[in-house]
Write the structure tokens for this entry.
Amino acid sequence: MLRTLFFLAGFFPWTLFVLLAGLPLSLLGPDTLHHWAHLWARGSLWLAGVKVRCAGAEHLRPGAAVVYMPNHQSNFDILALLACIRPPFRWLAKKELFAIPLFGTAMRRAGCIAVDRADHQSAMASMDEAARRIRAGEAVMIFPEGTRSLNGRLQPFKKGGFVTAIKAQAPIVPIAITGSGSILPKHARCLRPGTIAVTVLPPIDTRAMSLDDRDLLMERVRQNLENILPAAEAEAT
């Protein structure tokens, strides 16, 4: 409980400082805010008493069109990804986050793409926008499960991100995140210090794939994550 109170007491002023300092600089371009987000994530993890171990940096593709696909266990996944993935990328995020004062403005200026999960047609339009941005050379981060897992196990994947990758003919880079679920599980109010392991896996090529291959692509990404998650979980504990 004391760690949670310490984190909350520092997190909101720290976030406000980063937003107020970073937003004016965002006029220089969305990548500027990404670098501020990296600093914000590192500071927030320190406040929470959370260490992050990053592996697989050789599989990152700075400046390349790519779709990053991590599993999702906790809100701390976002901080861990921002701390480990240094090349700029754009988030595909639920539209409710864009309504948060200042934070939503920062997300828009950082090039994040809003998704209305309650409106299928709008969600598909967002996926098409993501595919267009990827074809233009940007990297996009998509949680294929769509929401956080309650028990750390992979949930069923949503097809939208895989359709986006195929439409963009861009590689998918799976990312295995472990340890975050025990730090702040879904619906939990108290956090526990610990270590999060972020493991970037080899890219999966989508060139020459058609939309008929999306189920096969989903299974390949799932298998790659399942192969590494138990081992990474053991190392994180």
